[in-house]
Fold each of these.
Amino acid sequence: MSSLDELYRQVILDHYRNPRHRGVLTGPHVHAEGLNPSCGDEFSIDLKVEDGTIADVAIQGRGCSISQASGSMMTEAIVGKTLHDARLLTTNFKLMMGIDVGADPLDPERPGAVLGDLEALQGVRKFPVRIKCATLPWTTLADALDQAET
Amino acid sequence: MSSLDELYRQVILDHYRNPRHRGVLTGPHVHAEGLNPSCGDEFSIDLKVEDGTIADVAIQGRGCSISQASGSMMTEAIVGKTLHDARLLTTNFKLMMGIDVGADPLDPERPGAVLGDLEALQGVRKFPVRIKCATLPWTTLADALDQAET
Amino acid sequence: MTDLSHLRDDFPILHREVNGWPLVYLDSAATTQKPVQVLDAVDAFYRTKNANVHRGAHTLSAEATAAYEGARAKVAAFVNAGSPNEIVFSRGATTALNHIAYGWGLNHLSAGDRVVLTVMEHHANVVPWQLLARYTGIELVYLTLDDDYEVDLTGLDDLLDERVKVVAISAMSNVTGTLGPVRPLVEAARSVGALVVVDAAQLVPHSPTDVQDLDADFLVFSGHKMLAPTGIGALWGKSERLEEMEPTEGGGEMIADVGLYESRWAPVPQKFEAGTPPVAQAVGLGAAVDYLTAIGMETVRAHEHAITGYTLKRLAEVPDLKVYGPSDPTRRGGAVSFTLADIHAHDIATILDQRGIEVRAGHHCAKPLMRYLAVPATARASFYLYNTTDDVDRLVDGLFEARSVFGFDA
Amino acid sequence: MTDLSHLRDDFPILHREVNGWPLVYLDSAATTQKPVQVLDAVDAFYRTKNANVHRGAHTLSAEATAAYEGARAKVAAFVNAGSPNEIVFSRGATTALNHIAYGWGLNHLSAGDRVVLTVMEHHANVVPWQLLARYTGIELVYLTLDDDYEVDLTGLDDLLDERVKVVAISAMSNVTGTLGPVRPLVEAARSVGALVVVDAAQLVPHSPTDVQDLDADFLVFSGHKMLAPTGIGALWGKSERLEEMEPTEGGGEMIADVGLYESRWAPVPQKFEAGTPPVAQAVGLGAAVDYLTAIGMETVRAHEHAITGYTLKRLAEVPDLKVYGPSDPTRRGGAVSFTLADIHAHDIATILDQRGIEVRAGHHCAKPLMRYLAVPATARASFYLYNTTDDVDRLVDGLFEARSVFGFDA
Ligand SMILES: Cc1ncc(COP(=O)(O)O)c(C=O)c1O
Ligand SMILES: Cc1ncc(COP(=O)(O)O)c(C=O)c1O
């Protein structure tokens, strides 16, 4: 497979064109916004947290296929997870992107560790300038998780 | 003669160490000041003008041997001259320095054209960075002449 | 089309490969590549006459000063300035615009005064005025674009009144290629006594420029966008304007005298060149000006009109592609922004980059314009004298691949 | 003495002649010469990866950005900054000091606040504060020198009170070679909550520098005085201080978002780097830092102590010569200012230049100091790693010739 085909997997284009959980939440929720100033990509997230678990999520954003697909896939991966597992997932995602987060890869058997569909994004790693596209939703999520925990 | 010897003629060192007409004038006179910002040389001149003739002159200043000697020699050359002849001398001096003043050299027979001792300064021409030292008194004089004429 | 392809040999970088393909550099509006003539001039300066300028009585310093001031004279001649003293060297167009906003604006503008801009301005000609507004309370007013992406002057008469003190306009947009209507604005501004500031960062590199003929008050540009090194640019100002301006930086060289509590300034242009200037970079700019002059700026412009025309024609063959910019290639510059179907500009740039084709994607430091055009990002191909129709053909091939990667029919 | 003479081969200019003599360059305090390693790094950048930084999704832009940010990391490590984000690239020390005065000072100082300077400051660390005084009404207060040209701290306790908000001091005088007492001043300033700004233009090139250990708030230096190209310098600031600082220039790159009337800034350090930065020059500074690191800054300093000591010893042989600067060569920098009998400094410089020896003559951009020392001008020999005792011997021979030209006994 050429690196372009690895980057633009079918599932990524599908999420780009049909983003999941798009919109805003009503009722109590936390909200966070992220921006990539160098390229202008925007991402925002609403999280509804119940008993330490992500009960619902909604996202909005504008940007390239990578950032938007990453965000859409992220919503599917975190909904229903505990805040803790969502954090583990964030760590694991960044590790997959080759970002040194000062931690080892997680035991792939742990629920928070399973990237699933998100693994389609591993082709991004070969495109260093696009890594920040893929991680924008995750840094925004981290922000929302911080809020949810305080 | 080496170019250094040409530059530092005995007569120049003599004027540097024993500047003529040093001081200030009392009574009515015009006054002008000049500064060479890049090297800090300073020069000021008082001119007493009677009937269109330079009746007396006094100078003050600090700086290198070239600027100070040029000023001292200038006082000897202009005292007793008409304003017009002092201007001609200024032109001639600048021409000697190789400065394009948009005029031809003057007839050497004309009283205003005779540089006399000042010709000792022609060695400066070989030292382009020092030309502005030699001309500082003359641009200051030009300023004073402007005032005397208005 | 004027064939300048023989010049490509002067540009070492054009012979490198990117991702296994020969480089096609289509990002000259961001920064241009450098010919060996410029690189050699800079190198030779360091190897033979490097010294600090203006301060020294020694030979090296005199030679360095002559090289530096010689570059000033070349730049002055290149834009037909009235005198080399009307050229202030700055780090680039951005710094120059800030000098104007602060150095002139802080001392001449006050609350309620207006500065007229256009929505197509680069951030460099927006943010300094916003910063100035914080300190002075001036108001910013924007001209918009018409349907063919030209600056819309219809409302100008209503807009211009005695409150307007400055009109600051880009002579050529780095996004749409639109030529700013400098002449009509100069005329209109004069009628209310306003100053005109021209951001010529995209004009001077690409077109003959005559500041006396344009008759604005200030005009700025960057060396790195015209074959010269990074770190150097120029601010041209009419003598009277420069005299009115206060220095924005204090330090060595810009002074006549420094006391403990007060100082007096050196004459223009030194007054605006505090500290050790970018000497070698100025020398490089001088060499770039020599290079461009030898080719002839009319030739440069003609070549760009031709290649822009060819590009617009070929892009029209790509389905779902939309160009943002004037349609007549002879009435615009060689920065061509576009979108392609629902493929985001960054994805286009990545796909092209895989084929060694370097285009820019994003907001191009013109967020107000992107909002005005209601497009989050565009891809942009921009040209200079070293580009050929082959480059354009490879661009178009790449765009067809982008379509196919994103599942569109070729 | 540490023999670094093998390094001379790295400096092409040292092989040229001046007025028929091999060049003896004794003006490194004004600007240093450049080794081929630096010239090659700059050239290679332009030939292989030149592009604008931060803005692009393409390979060239990514490579250029990596080179630029890599240079920032090198510079940060060189002065032991807490993080590369504490390094702001600027045009030079002068621009950096202006950034501090305006960017921090305008927003934190007001009428009656005091800034403490010393009489030995370079204009770059005087005029920005004077300009700030115009806008804010702050007062400047000066520390003087003692008999051995050291900063006199005896009156410090009386001087320091809660009005003092900033202490801005040179870490090494470019005239006398005096080392500014940064440590005691940091301690004293802390006691009244004042900030410390260090002008390290002459320190960083010549001595190991550890900003965390010095513990000041801001520290600035210029690349061209440490083997790097002109047009680049650095502002180091503690993170908290940089966060408190407002941008002094607006434009591209320094923004998070730009609206028509308001904008939001990018994070530090981008917030202070509006427009296209001096990319290639930063890369050159990175290469210079590599070069100096390979030699070792301890070695550089030891070499300069040795050559300064030798110079002071040899100058003592010249009758009627007076040195302005501390007498202990290990407690001072390698800038040696002097006068000789009644021979004006410019005449000394010209006579030396006739023998290919380049020294500086004048006020050295330190007019307050010249007035304080009551001397209109000095000649100055200043050294760097490429100077040898032979250079000093030729200087001394030249000074004897100056004596003879001016009619003194040898
Ligand atoms: C129209 C325009 N103005 C100003 C600038 C700013 O130039 P620089 O980044 O060289 O300061 C640019 C380039 O980015 C530009 O295209
Ligand atoms: C002590 C000192 N401070 C500041 C400066 C200013 O540096 P630059 O001219 O590189 O901005 C210099 C050099 O001239 C200096 O010697």
Amino acid sequence: MNFQLPNLDPVTPELVMTSVALVILLLDLIIKRKEIVALLSIAGVLGVAATLIGSSGTTFGGMFISDGYSTFFKLIFFVNVILSVLISIKYIAVEKVNYGEYYGLILFATIGMMLMASAADLIVLYLGLELMALSTYVLAGFIRHEARSSEAALKYFLLGAFSSAFLLYGISIIYGLTGTTNIQAIAAFIVERGLAGKSALLLSVMLLTVAFGFKIAAAPFHMWAPDVYEGAPTSITAFMSVGPKAAGFAVLGRVFMVAFASVTVDWSKILILLSILTMGIGNVVALSQTNIKRMLAYSSIAHAGYALLGIIAANNEGLASMMSYMMIYAFMNIGAFAVIIMLRSEGFKGEGIYDYEGLAKHHPLAAALMLIFMFSLTGIPPTAGFVGKLYLFMAAINAGYTWLVVVAVIFSAISAFFYLRIVMFMYMREPRTEVGLTTSAGTGVVLGITTVAVLFIGVFPSYLLGFARLALAGF
Amino acid sequence: MKLYLLIPFLPLAAFIINILLGKELLRDKAHWPSCLGIIGSFIISVITLFQVINGKTINEDLYTWMISGNFKVSVGFLIDQLTAVMLFVVTGVGSLIFIYSIGYMHGDKGYYRFFAYLSLFVFFMLMLVTANNFIQLYLGWEGVGLCSYFLIGFWYEKKSAADSGKKAFIVNRFGDFGFALGIFMIFLTFGTVHYEPVFSNVGNFAGQTLNFLGIEVNLITLIALLLFCGAVGKSAQMPLHVWLPDAMEGPTPVSALIHAATMVTAGVFMVARTNAIFNLSPVAMGVVAIVGASTSLFAATIACVQNDIKRIIAYSTLSHLGMMFLACGVGAYAAGVFHLYTHAFFKALLFLGAGSVIHAVHHNDIQRMGGLRKFMPVTYATMLLAALSAGGIPGLAGFFSKDEIVWSAFASGTDIGRLVWVIVTCVAFFTPFYSFRMIYLTFHRKFRGTHHEEHHLHESPSVMTIPLMLLAVGAVAGGWVGIPSVLGGGAYFAHFLEPVVGHPEFHGTHAQELGIMSLSTTIAVTGLVLATIFYLLKTSIPVRLARNFNVFYLILFNKYFVDELYNYTIVKPTMWVARRFLVGFTDAKIIEGIVNGVPRLIGIFSSGLRRIQTGLAHHYGIFMAAGAFFIILYMLLWR
Amino acid sequence: MFLSLAVFTVGVFGFLTRRNIILMFMSIELMLNAVNINLIAISHYIQDLRGQILAFFVIAVAAAEAAIGLAIVIALFRNRPTAHVDEVHEMKG
Amino acid sequence: MEQVIMNQLGYPILTTIIFLPVLGSLFILIMRRSWELPVKWIALTTSVLTFIVALPLFTDFDKTTHKMQFVERHSWIQQWNINYYLGVDGISVLLVLLSALSAILCVLISWDSIKTKVKEFYIAILLTTAAMIGVFCSLDFFLFYLFWEAMLIPMFLIIGVWGGPNRVYAAIKFFLYTLVGSVLMLVGIIVLYLYSGRSFDILELTSKSYPYSMQLWLFWAFFAAFAVKVPMWPVHTWLPDAHTEAPTAGSVILAAILIKMGAYGFLRFSLPLFPEASKAMTPVMLTLSIIAIIYGAVICLGQTDLKRLIAYSSVSHMGFVTLGIFALNIQGMEGGILQMINHGVVTGALFLSVGIIYDRTHSRQIADYGGLATVMPTYAAFFMVFTLASIGLPATNGFIGEFLILLGGFTANKLVGVLAATGVIIGAAYMLWLYQKVFFMQTNQKILGLPDMYVREALTLAPLVALVFWIGVYPNSFLSFMHPSVENLLQRVNTAGGIQEISVAKAIMEVMFR
Amino acid sequence: MISVLLFVYFAFAIVALSVVVITRRNPVHSVLWMLLLFFHIASLYLILNAEFMAAIQVIVYAGGILVLFLFVVLLINVREETRISRFIGAWSAGLTFAASLFIVVILSLRSFVAAPPGQYSIDLIQQETHTIALGKILYTDYLFPFEIASLILLVAIVGAIVLAKRRLKA
């Protein structure tokens, strides 16, 4: 019975994160002012971010790998969690669900994502995914006294479980084919046994596609997204629209690019299909939405479609573009949600797009910021959204999918319409009702960060791009 | 500082002064700068004229205007015999009319504006005649058109005035359209647009043909005809003559200066100027002759039945312009220019006289005039002289010029020459007829206006009558510089112009010349006599004629319905296309239909797809399963 | 293999068709079991225990899922007393 | 670097003129929204400063070379090999100056007419100016596209917030129209970038040569962007709405500068990048231009709205510009460029003038006017000058431009010349018709006793009048800028491989089925 | 031989039972049927000589999950389902896609080939018991996933409490 502790350096972030989460859970019992809990958790996350440095390598028998790729995504997750927590502080008080578990769960979900990002083994991947998923289910239903919230949780849960069943089935078939669950090993095995053409293998690929497609809300596995986004607490919507999506892309990238590298031609075909469908449905259906959260849900579906281009390109550049896009998307999307949250006040939902009429009259600043985010989501320079899209398109065209990019740009032109509609409401209509803003330090900070980030990346993207390239150096 | 530069630029200066200061400072003294300006340039023109007579012609560039690739134009001046004559006419007649206007326009609220425009016009006119290249010619060409637009529509509150101005400009644009194309062709052919190289090289291109819009045509003929389009527009020849009668809406001095003496003759000037080109194209020459002749006859016939005193003169102008072209058409450019020169005097005189009449009776209808002779003797006398001169009564200016035209038409020896000779002989009958019809109805018999009007009848002030007299002198004696040799004269005028326009070769004896001369003279006299019978002695005849030949009368009275023709074939259809078809249909329905239709379509899609989102977890599940099924199937089938 | 597939399908069918939330959960559990059967059978054939490990984890997760899911059901039930999914569609479109 | 001339001046002139307005708008941003007068003054000073700073471009410009001048080049985004790369040549320098000038006019004309959200308005105006100047100065595709799209945002707001009754529709239409066009161009840009071994350097790209098939469809991708901006028939319908609904300043910017970007794009990109394709497509382009000229002119006759009429006349005039450009000879092209300036001056001026009376009567309907000349003589005089310039009367700038274009068109193809010339006739027809309806005839009761132009308004129009005659009487001072650049460009196009022109139908086919 | 027969029996029984489970009208019944199903599955595991898994199956599922189900069913199932149809309206679609999925998966599984045998041969497992063998791997190689699983359970507890607790003092 010889047992030596495996090298723990690579997992330090996860370990620290876990301890932070646990501490938060405990502190929650003694600390009454939940703001402090929130701030503590942020501090903790920052600490974790610090530990990212020097944590690299594989461990636990190659089950866990911490490389640039995962690190990059973990950064996205941290950005995501910090911003979401900041916008939550006031919001959950307004919603009267000011419980500490909230932060704990958010942290747990983040841990799940981190694990997904650096999973080198399907088992770890699956568990990470479940960890994330379960926490998110709970968070989605966190406003227990609100039927919509519970409903969102239910739908999310049912379909999530359903999709993870597909995932498992796929995993089991792969396992049967290769006798292993380690991503590297699978790749190697497929090559050596010449499984490339085998329909059984492809079947498993497809099943995984279903599961991941669900996580990134790609059509036709997107149907949960609008309802859940609408029903869930806005802060959680913001959190969900970035975190799980990014995590999904992380695993998609790693599994498909590493494990199934040898069958790229086959899955890229499917993904092209999905991405077109996704962009189409996302952009088109968003046109006829009257609830802004729902509209952003569809827009996030559409963005998943764009980001898929990066995977389809199936090369490092593609991944880099996808990663940068996720980072950018995190900023601009959460920024937009921050504005939405400001409109939520006691007894006023502020989710209908008509609530935005004439916003510029009484709250010019908020309107201006929303304008920036909307244009960024549309992809108009000099905002980050443009850079992100440009990079994706570059990658796709470079991989020879020009026609696909043409489709994409057409759709993004269509998307301009519904983003513009918000701007139009804010600036070119007279306010119907006096809308009050619930401002708070947290939201302020978030808006500051996101705006600066969006504009800065828009004008000086080189840092982000450089980082993305660097992250993929050893991939 | 070259002296001749002052000729055009003095009036320009006058214009600028007037337009800037006229409104506040000068007001009713606005005539000073203009009159000084034009008189100044008149003096200089006379000086230049004598210089030219002494054989000193000028052709030099002032500065380079446009340069683009091998296309290079400069603002330059060419002053030769032809130009000198034109300068003399323009500035001379111009000065008189300016002075006349002082009285005529007295007290008008647009006084300063009027003189400003007049000066501007003179400037452009002088630029036109002194140009040494086609572009500058074109500049003057458009410029005078613009000023005529301003001056016709001078009383812009009157819709008719504004309309006429617009009409004049647009009709002219049609001519200029051809003119511009002609210039393009010249550039393409010769690589330059300056007279001198063009005229010297034109010979090398004789007989060349090219494919123009699918038609194989003679190069020179094409150029000539395109240029002639411009002339037709500017000189109001058929079929672009419609604007000139309407132009009479303008103040009378304007009609005298622009629509009789100077601007309308620009076409003749241009043809004479480019005679080098025309000479090489018999076809073009023929066209010019025919157009001129037909216009001449056409206008003359109309003039016989009009009642608006100014319109009568206007149609007579058309008729005379036709003759000038006719002359050019048979190669007798000198004759054409000569007639231009004499015509300037007697026609300006007629107009000014008419102006003075209108000044007295405040309307244009000769049927409501009559017996004015005793109220305004000077006007009567001068106008009588003018009418005689116009009618080609021997000894007067008009006689010599017209006679030269008739003779050269006959003597040119070509069939066309003979044809136009016949026509011009007919015209020789009509001219005195309508002139004297007008004289009689206006000045003889008893006054047919209201008593109130009669009470105000008076002779015009001397500032108006003096110019009349001076012009009368011109109308009488102006022609003596061109007395044909057969009458023992020196025909100085023709010889003077020879270096520029050459000399047509005549096939005919002195005997024939005398015969022709006497023939046309007798015909003219017949016309005069007939007019006397109709409108002085047996005034019932014309009425009866009108009744019996109702159809002819109506056709003539309505100017052959040309205006209506254009209105229904060009104006109305265009407007219909613009309003109904383009605005209403292509833009609104087709293009906008697509532009707005696509979003609407997407919208429909959107709401359709939206309905899929039932909110039922089951359906979502089904969709996921279906998706899974389809991608697996896809994978199975197309792997 | 086919056995597990059959069970899986039945699970899918149940999930897609039953209106009772509890039954939907059960269907999911069925699917998970199917996967487990699959894994264990395979690990039996290829004489490798990792499959069983995975199955083990699956069972653990299934338990967790059940807990959460039922909690959600209860929470929902507090707001709207029904056990039928097709009555839960406040948000759509 | 030897094919450009680095900035000879001591200071980075182009950067300055691009970012002065931005700076100004930042200043305004920190103003209190109640301080309207300071805001206006800041805007004015900024724009005037910009213009003054830009003047050396006119004086110190080296007219003997086609090379880019006043060039600035700094590495910007290494990963994508993107540089901050600015420079002007004979084609762009005048447009830059025009943009700078128009900014001043826009500020002046809006002085009293903009009453709501004053602060935001001037910010938008200044930002637009910056973006416009940027577009004309960029020598790097990324930078170019950045400005190209960025200008949409403030423009969208200018139309949509301060515009007329139907402004929202117009604004969104404008935005989507142009966006659809430019995204296709974006694809084209990326393709070029990748094909050329990852370079956004316009000069470098334009010196390469590309396979014909690629050229062909890239040409159309770029065409989509430029044709919409110009706007060429049949994608012109955004223009009447946008011009009509926009506030005066907005219309001026649109007319004077924004729609020039399209034509500029053809000159700067389409021709040098895809010479063969351009040659092959010449028939199509000429046909479209002719249609635009005549269609635009005739449709003017059917308008009842002042601004709409002028807007459609822009379609016609821009038709001349594209015609000149694609005549592919020196007269046509120089005429085209000059006509861009002319149209900017004249149509801009016309919109300013319309704005002046609109501020008084708040009506754009032609029927509401008449006899204005008696009420506002000075104004009538100004308007007359611009009318004449617009119908291309000699000694005004319009003549020079149109004449050169027609000459070029005629040289290229007789039929084209003839047809285009008819546009001149109709042009005269509708402009005079407009002038008569508005200024002549009985004075309309509605407009009795309107005050004549104020000094501010006269000052706004005066420089334009000066320009009208300056260009008309001594155009060389402007033409001389272009010669080397245009010759160089033409030489690039004409020396390109001899693919003879193909029929319109075939050209369309080529594009459809690839 | 026997084992094969047993396998066949269990196989059919399991399929049949699962169908029965999801078609019961009364949830309580289906839960009970499921219990039976789980026992079958457990015994199937025994045949595939995975005793430990069989045990887990019985304990966790039968012992834990099903009981939970039962609670909840009894707790919330106020309305007797007998009156209304037990399937949703679009059950046909569900059936179709389930079936078609089944078919395509079978089709694609025809090319399934098992991986080469690993080192844990049956007799190896026999001589040191299954539990120990499993345990060894679980606590050495698969320590990390194991930890994660513990986290998941923790989250489950927390989440369940947060959602289901009657009153949270806040």
